[in-house]
Amino acid sequence: MRVMLFILILVGFSLAQLKVVATYPWIGELVKEIGKDKVKIHIIAKGTDDPHFVVPKPSHIAKMRDANLLIIQGASIEIGFLPPLLQQSNNPRIQPGREGFLDLSQFVELIEKPQRVSREMGDVHPEGNPHYNLDPHNIPILARAVAERMCQLDSPNCSYYRANLEDFLGRWNAKLKEWDREFSKLRGTKVISYHKLYDYFLSRYGIVLVGTLEPLPGIPPTAKHIENLTAQAQGVKFILQDVYHEKRTAEYLAKRLNAKVLILPHDVGAMPEAKDLFSLFDEILRRFSQ
Amino acid sequence: MKKAMLLLSIFSLSFAQENLEELKRQLEEQRRLIRELEKKIEALEKAQKPEAKQEDKKEEKPIPADRTLQLRSKYEERLKAFQISPFRQTAFLPDISLIVDTSFVGRNKKDKELGELKIPGLYHKHEHDKHGHGALNEKRGFNLNYAELFFYAPVDPYFDLYATIPFSEHGAEVEEAYAVTRGLPGGFQLKVGKFRSSFGRLNSQHPHAWDFATQPLVYKVFFGDDGLTEKGIQINWLAPTPFYLLLGAEVLQGENEQSFGTDGFKIGTVEVSETRKPNLYVGFVKTSFDVGNLSILTGLSYGTGHSRIYHKHEGEEHAFAGKTKLYGFDLTARYNLDSIRYISFQGEYIYKDSKGTGFEHDGSTLNTEEVKKKQGGFYSQLVFKFDKRWRAGIQYNLINKNYVKKDGVKEDLPKNLPAYYAMLEFSPTEFSRIRLQAGQNRAFYEGGRRKTVNEVILQFNFAIGAHGAHPF
């Protein structure tokens, strides 16, 4: 009897919480900021993962089965691992088109949308560059979108979510001023990146991307491409390197160009210092100004 | 009358007064609304500013040279002509992909010799239609294993539809065509049509998702070249547990040529009737959990059905009618070094238990006998993805139980039937793969003597169209 009661209480408690599955840690952070203790969050990718290649572990399916809300980054970035998980989740609530499915790429303007797509161009996304989470000015819009959807799904706690949102936005906007001021000092700086991973951040602050180490998106660097890049990359100050690709090429080129390799976090958890959304951008700033 | 007039005027006056009050109130309300709207617009303008700023910044970026610009403007002229057709349905085009698999094979046995080899008590080659993928890497030299069309789209809010149609040089086959429910409550899902059964681990995967160029030996002897692919229905239930736990049941037609079969036959003077239809029942349970970076996926499977196997070869006939049970255990342990690199162990044990009557007819005399078979074997493999583009792996196959009793007399059959393979593969992208596989198969016999088959396979696999998902 006591056990039954305990189970009932447990079930009741788990029902009270909104269950959210997010594909990437930064989305999870938004949900945590807005939902705090009223949500239970499961994040599929790790911060150190290449966002294009996340392991579709069956254990995620178990978490998606009971979710009330699935939030994705969209723009085809999850295409390699999410569709089979979603199909096997046996959960009608979070299928695309339902209220429990939220694609955040719908709320921002994507850049670098190709005029035509063909796989000869490498791993291009027809929707545009999917790494929009690295523009800090996109975060408030996305936070609002997340809060609104959580309100729809869990109206009794709506005012709680809205209050948390306002609190978050207050702190974020204060930080934005600081970041804008500091990052603007980098305007006009020439950089090279491994993949077109930081483009939203770069275009926000007028940092000039001269080229990428990858000859085409998703294709590893070749000697010939690096040779060509060296020829046209005079005055490049930084080579921006993510945490999950090999670093030899960046180091080699940095030596040739007399530039500096900057390993930058692309998501929360990519490195220990980037433990939430605030410290993610703080860490990027710290690494630029080092 | 006067009184009435007075009353009316007073009434109307008070009414007017009231109206005036009402109007004032409304005006006040309107003003408040306008103020509110103004505030909202202001807020919106504020919110939009960052976006506007972003636009400005974008223009500062160097515009990449676009070689196709001129071409495109030409294109767009032509596109206009298409837009005249107002009932175009292209937006509803399903996801389509085409997967082409071709290989070069070097083997120490001539094709005809290989065709005549048998695995005693378990397998011998017989002609069947060549429309689907059938046997892979069948001939020495160049092979076109298949060109496989894949379709997917939601049917409506209630069903998803999948179809896989492999083409060979000789024709096409509907390998899979099934619908899956999208919205059943309570963690249930229903699958109906023709599909690869969820028995075991590898069976539900298409050959292009396999880690090796060849089918494991246990699959070849118990399921045949196409695996357990059947018409039927599947219901599965994902349990509401914190770890992955899937239970499923299938009712299948049961036409598999190696273990089941439904059609009756006539051999000599004996006529064996067809089986119940549907003929095959399958149940499975799968579970998965993570221990740090190690992911475990394991399952148990069971299948039971009647068997009707009949072959005719150069005037000789032989057949089997009875009941067959299949048991399967599978285990996958994948250790993820990071999001790209991993080491994965995968193994499956399959056990087959058959009982029934065997028939042999050499044109004049019919010989019937009571047959009991208990056979089992496994494959186990280790695959190491050590780079974004490179994988290497080894596979060990063994049939270690081959117990056949005919009319109470145990047959003297070999029960140590191994095959080993090693592979190295290079995948320039997710859409192309070049695999070199070398191996030795020591399961084949001819006239009571073991015939070792050595082979080298260079396999090319290409996919165009919709992006397939990476298998776990």
Can you walk me through this structure?
The complex is a heterodimer of chains A (290) and B (472). Chain A has 290 residues and is α/β, with parallel strands linked by helices. Chain A folds into two domains: 12-175, Nitrogenase molybdenum iron protein domain (Rossmann fold); 184-289, Rossmann fold (3-Layer(aba) Sandwich), CATH 3.40.50. Chain A is 42% helix and 12% strand. Chain A is built from ten helices and eight strands. Chain A has helices at 2-16, 25-35, 58-65, 82-88, 138-153, 158-184, 199-204, 223-232, 248-257, 277-289, and strands at residues 18-22, 39-43, 69-72, 101-103, 190-193, 208-212, 238-241, 260-263. Chain A has a four-stranded parallel β-sheet, with helices on both faces. Chain B contains four helices and 24 strands. The model of chain B is unreliable at 50-64 (pLDDT under 50). The N and C termini of chain B lie far apart (96 Å). Chain B has a domain at 178-453: Porin, CATH 2.40.160. In chain B, the strands form four sheets. In chain B, strands 1-4-5-7-8-9-10-13-14-15-16-17-18-20-21-24 form a 16-stranded antiparallel β-barrel. In chain B, strands 2-3 form a two-stranded antiparallel sheet. A two-stranded antiparallel ribbon of chain B has the order 11-12. In chain B, 29% of the residues are buried. Chain B is 18% helix and 50% strand. Chain B has 472 residues and is of the alpha+beta class. Chain B is elongated. At the A-B interface, helix 3 and helix 4 of A face helix 1, strand 9, strand 10 and strand 13 of B.
What attributes characterize this protein structure?
heterodimer; A: 290 residues; alpha/beta; Rossmann fold; 2 domains; four-stranded parallel β-sheet; 10 helices; globular; B: 472 residues; alpha+beta; Porin; 16-stranded antiparallel beta barrel; two-stranded antiparallel ribbon; 24 strands; 18% helix; elongated
